[in-house]
Structure formats: structure tokens, C-alpha cells
Amino acid sequence: MSAPRIFVSRLIGCGVFDPSGDRVGRARDVIVTYRTVGPPVVVGLLVEVPGRRRVFLRIARVTGITTGAIITTGLINLRRFEQRAGETRVLAEIVGRRVRLHDSDRTGRVEDVSIEQLATGEWVVADVFLRRPKTSASPFARGETMLVPWAETEEIRHDHGEQDTTHLLASLQDLQAPDLAGALMELPERRRAEVVAALSNERLADALEELARDDQIQLVGTIEDIRLAEVLDHMQPDDAADLVARLAPDRKERLLQLMEPEEASDVRMLLRYAPDTAGGLMTTEPVICSADTTVAEGLALIRRHEIAPALAAAVWVTLPPYEAPTGRYIGLVHFQRMLRYPPNERLGTLVTEEVEPMSPDASALEVARTLAAYNLTSLPVVDRNRRLLGVVTVDDVLDNLLPEDWRHRVGEEVTDGSQDAR
Q: Which domains does the chain carry?
């Protein structure tokens, strides 16, 4: 009796468990290598472990694959995954390719791939699930599907059409922004460009905000100015300013001209300050209210989905106008204080002035000390006329103080005793 064949799409997102039943991660892709004769050999799995790290799990460490679960020996090398020469990711690089059937002019795109374990214990690619080109002009029509052995297909080497990204995008859909950023940078360069082109501007903006500086520059180098300007419009102004500041002067000015005037104005203001000062770290979009705003209205404002947690911790009360730079700064009201008062209470009666505003020229170290000393999550930044310019949040300060490669170090202190060598 032949071994059951497992489709890779069924493995993506499956839990990876040790022999005791404790989950150690989730499968994100299957890694194969091509050989001169015979189907590609499965060498391992790409597994996401706690701490948002993606690591390589040798297929020899897999003791069983059941419905929705992958069982391992319990030993996983926690070094961050780095794709080697000769290795190919099934979901990221094979699914979506166009192939031709042997001895035929018929072609199709790969929608899935099955793998099977041979009697020798080796795992290989078995079948390819293809979708043929549609024959109807109807927008609802889809081409016929067929399941064929891998040996009966051949890749179209000079296919200059875009590789279909449907399945890969589906696997990235539920990832949080930091995980999406990491997944993008792990893709091969050409595949990454295709996925970036298919992402929405909002989703790409979220990912860019989470990337290290060098990775940001590498990624935006592949994006046209018109598209990049639209993405910058969706980024937090401080993050957009940090990114624009690192671009060549001619491209920087071109992007600012292409951005929405209101968004570009915030970025231009932030660019006036050094990146390691309160002015360079602040965001220009805190929740700003008048003194007549009620508690109910204030809570509704911070309840909005797009408000970051650090900014939702308080509302800032000023005189008009209520967009940075505002009228004279009055004070802040913490959301916990709002919860203690009736909905119709005016915020002007609840304002606290205990937090001394910062000058935009204050150093990042001074901001960090103040946040730590008073157990704060954010600090107001005002100009000489005490107009509110923006707010520095604790996450922006941490981002500035941590080493540039801190994102790549997350989880590196975890060890499991495994000495697998790839």
C-alpha cells in the first residue's frame, strides 16, 4: 500500500508539536531541492516559533504528519532561517509558476503540490495540482483543474509573466505587521517584488513601519514613486519622515510633492528635527480634544481601530485649532481617569498638568528618562508658544534606543540544545 500524499497547502499553518504534545511553532512553507533525475527532495520545513522567528526544521526531525499536526523529535535549531543556494520554497517559489505538460502544448499554473514519504524514509514531491487557462471570456469563469505527477511536467523557463501570488498572499493575510515584514524579507527578491505589488497600500505601509532601516531602503528601491507616495500617506508621520529622510534628496522631494498635501506637511515638519530628538521621534497624530469634549466623546475617539495602543492611553486637551500644531496646550486626560467619571463630564475638568511638556529639541535620552521616571507611555512636545506639536510614545523611544538589528535578535537567547548543521 502506497504512503498517503499530503498537499502542501494543508500543511501551511499547521501546528508543530514535540513528542509531549506541546506546540513549538507553526509550519509556514516546505523547502525542497531539485536533483538531476527524479522529483525534488523535501529537505525541511520553514517553521515560525514564538518570538516571530522563522527557523529551519530538518525533515529528518519530523516523526509524523497527521491532520492539522506535525510531530517532531522535539529538537529544533533556533537559528534564524536563511535560504541556501539550491533550496526552493514550495509556497513562495513553486506555487503560481506556469508549467507545461510533457509531450504536449498544454500549460497550467501550479496551485498546489503534494509530497509523499518513500519506503526509504525520504520525502519527495509527488503530484502537481494545476489550473489550466480559462477558455471563456466571462469574469466568473475559471480554467479546468487537473492533478498530474510531477514527472509529467516541466517548468517554462522563459516565462516572463508574473507568478500568481494568490496562495502566497492568502498565507500572509492573517499575519500581524511585524510578522508580515519578516516574511517579506525572507522571500526571494523577484518573488518579494511580486508580493509587494499585490499588497494593498495600507498593508504595505504597516510592514514598512516594522522593517529595519536597511531593509526599508532595499524594499522601497523596488517601488515606483507614485505607489510609494500613496504608501507613505498611510504610514504614521514619524515613520514616514524617518524613511523619507534616508532617501536621496531628489527622490525625497519628488515623493513629498506626490503625497497628499496634509500628510506631506506633517512629514516636512518632522524632517526639520534631528531623528534623535523629541521632535524627530514624535507623532503628529495624537488624539486631540477641546476642553468641552465629554468623557463619552473622548472614549469614542480612543476606541477607534486605527489608534495605536500607546496613543489611546490618553487624550490631549488644547485650545483651537485641534490639529498639530494646535492652539495652546492645556493638559492631558488618561483613559483610566475618564472611566471613573460619568459620560457627560467635560474633559476640561479632568485635565492633569503633572506631565511637563518637552521641547522638540530635547534629546531622546532625556525623553526616555522622563518616561521611565514618571511611568508614562507618552509625552507632549510643545513649541515656544506652548502649542502642541505632537506626542512621543514609549515604543518610538525604544525603537530609537535599541540596536539597529534588534528585530533580528528577537528570540535569539532561546536555545534548545540542538546542534543540527545545515
A: 1-164 (no CATH), 175-272 (1.25.60.10), 288-397 (3.10.580.10)
